[in-house]
User: What shape does this take?
Amino acid sequence: MAATTPSVTVAGATSPRARWGSLVTRQGVLVALVLLVLFGALRYDNFLGAYNVLSVLRYNSMFALIALGMCFVIMTGGIDLSVGSVAAMTSVVSALLSPYGLVPALLAGTAAGATVGLINGVLVTRLGILPFIATLATMQAASGTGLLLAGNQSVSVSYDTAFVELGQGDLLGIPTPAWIAGLAFALGSVVLNFTAFGRYVLAVGGGEDAARLMGLPVERVKLLVYALSGALAGIAGVILASEFGAGQPTEGVGWELFAIASVVVGGTLLTGGVGSVGSTLAGVLLLGLIFTILNFENGMGWISLSAYWQSVIRGAFLLLVVVLQSRLTTARPPA
Amino acid sequence: MAEALPRGTSLPAGGRRRTRLGPFLQRYGAVAALVLLVLVNAAITPNFLTLQTLNVNLTQVGTIVIVAVGMTLVIATGGIDLSVGSLMAISGALAPLIFTGQLFPLPDSAVGVALAFVLPVLVAGLFGLFNGWLVTRFSIQPIIATLVLFIAGRGIAQVMTNGNLQVFKNPEFQFIGLGRMLGVPFQVVLMLAIVALAAWALRRTVFGRQVLAVGGNEAAARLAGVPVSRVKLLVYGISGLCAGLAGLIVIALNSSSDANLVGLGMELDAIAAVAVGGTLLTGGRATIAGTLLGALIIQLVRYTLLANGVPPAAALVVKAAIIVLAVWLQRQGRG
Assistant: This one.
């Protein structure tokens, strides 16, 4: 979690107070996560049991990968709404290629995702279309492409190859998807904190004009973060197909907004320029655990809350975070 | 208004081309596209120029237009409303609970139907005001503020109905979706009335000018004495009302209400219609008639493709291309 304190500060549009608020939120999300885990561990049997921990990790890996890409895009001041559809599309692509083995399916899925990401980047940088609209359009296009490839139904994966191992298998007792997500976050954290590219990302988000005047390759940085986001969503789609045994062209609805919520809960500012990879992971786990806690609570039998409460609770949580963040960042809200 | 509020950018990103065609396309592009679509259809689509085709298209586009009118006002202030689909689900879940007397006892069925028209729309309007309150009181970015209800709103609707499909048959209530006035579907009459009202308000009333002023330059508007917070609060409230009404129409058309599905993805359709119609997504310039045109263009393209045997999934890809093209053309014209 070294990433919770970015070593770079870039002067720009983001005010010191906003940065401070972001810092507090980032520490806050860790505290909240620890408290939630403690609450679960004390209240429920087997909450910290291997089965529960591993299934939480396995299930949330896809969302973690998507949130990581989203985090980078948001740090440049952009947004990527296409990730959910991209994951659905690449789940189909990889399911179709699963008879040829794990590696071709994984590569094709990732490449398909990266292609959509590159298109996003080109639309944003070359055509100057707002990220929100550009990715809204590719969201529709990716969804349509997925449905076309799949022939409007889910595509079963081949069980003859190692393909399902990716989503369902374990490595040293830890689910494979969790390894992938963990590795991606470690890499992401290193890239953000210790490479020139990481600094460029924050610089572009902190003040695009200033970054351009400093001679930073603004367009290339943006192109790369969108491609990265697409590629990560692509991998998430491959895991989806592998884990559930089918390419699902209609999955992924609302994943983009869930990812944005995780990033925001993790203290990354939507205005760009400030962010943390580690806190984004904490945000994903926090929102994911709400679902698990709800299941355990129902298992106790005291109360019976339908699964539908999870979105209400997630929404309330997001509300709490943004309101607190706003109180911290703005001294006096305009009347 | 467009000329009065030029958007200054200190650093042009890449060489922005000025074309003579630009201003023309920007002003009349949407109309030209619609005329072209009608002509192409008249030539190639069988039975296109019939009253039935017109009714089918207008019925399918009605709810999108109603939601998009509210969205236009929000976008005109420089905001965005992601919660409209969820608010549709809330009002759609509430109405059957009211007119079947499950929520509270009814003196007679006429009162029930009347309340089922009024209360859900008001509730959606209140949720819209809540969005506005978050945006104004806490200075939360609109995309995040409305993300809260996007996530939580559908959950609230699902919790209210326990996620169950509510099937009903109530001709008085369903008039809003299925009824006809002088041979014209009632929801189309409703749609046109709302479009006319909003277009008049935007052009001719103080409120309308204030909406554009806030979107054009918020700081300047505040200095000029425009009640910025109240204007913003109102546009989100209006957007909520529009969404609530659209929710009623959808469930009346379907004779059933499914909280999981009502309004799903509506925010994106509405934003697309607004963007294609020529409203500036950064605020300050808006056209209600353009939004109507934008929705009609998207609908007509979809209809053209479907009527000529193109699979619905491919239509999504084409829709994406249209959104990108329209926004790109809009940018060219802005030079």
Summary: The first strand of chain B starts at residue 166 and ends at 167. DSSP finds 13 helices and four strands in chain B.
